Amino acid sequence: ITTLFKRLIIMNKEINYLDNVDFAATVCDSSGIVLYQNTKAIQRDGNVIGRDLYDCHNAKVIIKSEAMNTDGSDLLSDAGRIPGAKLLELYNDEKYSEMPGALGKALQEAKSIMARTSNPQLADFVLDKAYFAELSALAEETGNKYIKAYVKMLIDSANLKSAVRTLRMNKDADFMKNALIDGGNTETYRIIGATD
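Structure (tokenized):
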């Protein structure tokens, strides 16, 4: 009981701190469920760092399920800014403007690419770039150097994975250029150059 009490005191201090900071703060559990949001985060209408990852996941499920003519609704998550079933409903009704942030435009573009090319990887690139562009903008809005550095590190990590995947698939530099995301610590041209 003493250990639990100490944890509650620490947690209370952290929440008091987050209530008084000048940026949106959200605490999520490991599955992305929001446990706490400070006033700034709540005022942002749920547009918090971390939740748009699930929107990107849901968008990929929707695009790929449609391309494969399967029902992927059991793979949708409600941990994003919009519940997965609601996003699917808006997508089916082509109400892209009602989707949060840049998600509607990205889904429209991904759908168009799938219709033209039947290549889910190209659709993924569009959705990933939109996700990271939005994440970068959110990080900039906080003005917090640690959050901005963290987002740059996430982009670098995604780019490294894309570069390795491209090499393993024996794809060319143009494919890699489409896969890489701007905004990390390492310029995309350097990554491409390092893989030649």
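The radius of gyration is 19 Å. The first strand starts at residue 26 and ends at 28.
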